[in-house]
């Protein structure tokens, strides 16, 4: 197969990834909740499970953002910026790239953190 054939073969395919905690492997986010923005860090609007992340308000700005960690092992993930998502009233979870690992949805190793 030539490199020119790759775009034709991938056309119309939607790839979904599961983003997991780099420390314990617990499922945190889906590529469906990921959105583009100006920050270099990955951002998400929601989690896979209700307990995927734990949140703590910042003492100096409790109405602006919260600290976010893995809901299973407590590994630090980043911050949730309140009312700063792509839609009005939606929050944005900005996550450190080093705290995530991305696995294609359906991959056997994606369920190791459950």
Commentary on this structure:
This protein is mainly beta. The protein has one domain: Peptide methionine sulfoxide reductase (Metal Binding Protein, Guanine Nucleotide Exchange Factor, Chain A). 5% of the residues lie in helices and 34% in strands. The strands form 2 sheets. The chain has a 6-stranded antiparallel beta sheet, with no helix packed on it. The protein is globular and about 40 Å long. The chain starts with a helix and ends in a 10-residue tail after the last strand.
Give average pLDDT, whole number.
80
Order of helices and strands: HEEEEEEEEE
Reading off the top of the CATH hierarchy, the class is best stated as Mainly Beta
| Uncertain residue ranges | 5-14, 110-114
At CATH's second level, what is the architecture?
Beta Complex
How far from one another are the termini? 38 Å
Helix/strand-derived category reads mainly beta
Helix content: under 10%
Protein name: Methionine-R-sulfoxide reductase B1-like
Organism: Echinops telfairi (Lesser hedgehog tenrec)
Keywords for this entry:
disordered C terminus; 114 residues; mainly beta; Metal Binding Protein, Guanine Nucleotide Exchange Factor, Chain A
What is shown here, in short?
With 114 residues, this protein is mainly β. It has one helix spanning 5-10, and strands at 17-21, 27-30, 34-35, 43-44, 53-57, 65-70, 76-81, 92-95, 100-104. It contains one helix and nine strands, in the order αβββββββββ.
Give the SSE layout.
Elements: H1 5-10, E1 17-21, E2 27-30, E3 34-35, E4 43-44, E5 53-57, E6 65-70, E7 76-81, E8 92-95, E9 100-104
Antiparallel strand pairs: 1-2, 1-9, 3-4, 4-8, 5-6, 6-7, 7-8
Protein name: Methionine-R-sulfoxide reductase B1-like
């Amino acid at each position: 197969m030539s490199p020119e054939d790759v775009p034709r073969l991938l056309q119309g395919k939607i790839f979904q990834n599961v983003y997991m905690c780099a420390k314990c492997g617990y499922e945190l986010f889906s590529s469906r909740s990921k959105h583009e923005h100006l920050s270099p860090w990955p951002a998400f609007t929601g989690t896979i499970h209700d307990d995927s992340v734990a949140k703590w308000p910042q003492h100096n700005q409790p109405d602006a953002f919260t600290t976010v960690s893995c809901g299973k092992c407590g590994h630090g993930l980043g911050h949730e910026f309140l009312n700063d998502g792509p839609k009005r009233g939606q929050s944005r979870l900005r996550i450190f790239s080093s705290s995530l690992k991305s696995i294609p949805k359906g991959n056997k190793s994606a369920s190791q953190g459950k």
